[in-house]
Amino acid sequence: MSDPKILIAYVTRDGHTRRVARRLAAAMDDDRVGVEAVVSDLDRVPDPFEAEGFDGVILAAPVRFGRHPRRMRRYAGDNRDTLERLPSAFVSVSGAAGSADPEGLDEAEGYVERFIERTGWTPDRTACVGGEMAYTKYSPLVRLVVKAASARAGGPVDTSRDHEFTDWKAVDGFAREFASVVRERRPDRRAGDGDATA
């Protein structure tokens, strides 16, 4: 039997969520993990979602101004029944998730809770991943707003460079954990579909 195949579909604003998606895939593609990961921008994933050929799916999206992108919210809501037939996960990338302050971590969890409420999709696993303050990539207005918010929270205000808050080891760990879930559930799903052989 071939290795289980997992789709990692992402939305990105400044490129950081793409990096997170690729890191998830790299952790899964390790020979010791035994999973094939396919990374794709959400715009290239069929809508409605066709689960054929995949044994699991991860959706990843950033948070800006307290919300995940509308197209990710719409996609997850429109395709929730298909997503829930597979092992699924949602990865939320935000500055709050990289905070050392418990209030910041609660805020990051709140973003995920609101996403689930709005979409009606209940993934098997969720992860809050610290993002990046990409000052050098922001428009002047966004840079000003983000800097003011960061100053209020005691965060970085040096706009001459970007500031990364990602715990890459935690990203690797989440990828391996989810891959394990997919491997464990794959035979059950296939047996239920009548595809198993004796």
General description of the model:
The protein is 43% helix and 18% strand. With 198 residues, it is of the alpha/beta class. It folds into 2 domains: 5-131 and 166-192, 3-Layer(aba) Sandwich (Rossmann fold); 135-163, no CATH class. The protein has a 5-stranded parallel sheet, with helices on both faces. Strands 6-7 form a two-stranded antiparallel sheet. The chain starts with a strand and ends in a 6-residue tail after the last helix. The model is unreliable at 188-198 (pLDDT under 50).
Secondary-structure blueprint:
Layout: E1 5-10, H1 16-29, E2 36-41, E3 56-62, H2 70-78, H3 80-85, E4 88-94, H4 102-119, E5 125-130, E6 132-133, H5 140-152, E7 163-164, H6 168-192
Parallel strand pairs: 1-2, 1-3, 3-4, 4-5
Antiparallel strand pairs: 6-7
Helix pairs in contact: 1-6
